[in-house]
Amino acid sequence: MHEIVFSAAALWMAVLIVISLITVVRARSSLTRVLALDMVTLLLIALLILYSDSRRVGYYLDAALVLSLLSFLATIAAARYHSEGEIF
Amino acid sequence: MLNDRLGNIGPYLADTLVVLGIIIMTLGVIGIVRMPDVYTKMHAASKAVFLGTISFTMASIVTNEWEIIARVILISGILMVTTPIASQVIARAAAIEHELMRTPGAVDESVYDLVLRDELAYLPVERGESVGAMIRDRKQRSELNGPLRHPHATGKEDREVTP
After folding, report:
1. What is the predicted pLDDT for the residue at B116?
2. Phi, psi torsion values for B130, nearest 5 degrees
3. Which residue of A8, A11, B71, B122 could cross-link A61, Cys pair, CB 3.0 to 4.6 Å?
């Protein structure tokens, strides 16, 4: 990947993450908040993949792996707590 | 291995895939900002952004380094399994809570049952965040001030609901 494409893509991903965080704050219901937080973590995973793609090191991807698993657990815990009042 | 076959179009292929993923993710973010309620926002959040992430992972296969490719395959596999499950859990929570449908023309048929059971006096249109929260609020108020009856209540609140 060329350097200018990486710079523009990283900048635009940062803009998308900021817009999603504003959506998290301004959401009208709590499930929308959970959904937007899930999307923020997906965008962060994509940003980490982009970084490791550009720098050609795999260390960013460990963080992306842990982040994907943690966001899955957090989304399920929040949604189940919202709907049933308990997680397990 | 892959770069020998690709020649020198490899970086351009990666550029194309990254730009494609950026476009798909932008559409997803526009969707989650513009869609009216959580049922329609789920389309944009769970499908479009995930597809953009998959496009990024395919772009990083062009780097031709084994440690990146193995981890990227693992990440995309995990995302492919966990994203539909998370989306389904959120949709189930919204259905249990009778979250309001704000899409024009949408009809929430699960609320009809509540109206039949006299837990709800009218179909809510633009108030509050979910019908379940309204019912909880109503039950708390009726515990405080005695039973709260709506104008159409017949006095037989425990009647059977016939579908």
Report:
1. 65
2. -150, 155
3. B71
Distance CA B50, CA B79 (A): 8
Residues B92 and B114 in one domain: no
Quick one: which H or E segment has residue B155? none
Say if the Cβ atoms of B71 and A58 lie within 8 Å: yes
B134 touches A at CB < 8 Å: no
Structural domain for B143, as ranges: 102-163
Q: Which of B66, B96, B126 is the last residue of a domain?
A: B96
> B38, A5: Cβ pair inside 8 Å?
no
Domain ranges of chain A: 3-84
Q: Which two tokens stand for residue A27?
A: 């959401």
Amino acid at B144: L
Distances (CA, A) of B23 to A1, B17, B87: 17, 10, 22
What is d(CA B111, CA A69) in angstroms, rounded to the nearest whole number?
35
Nearest to B75 among A6, A68, A79 (CB): A68
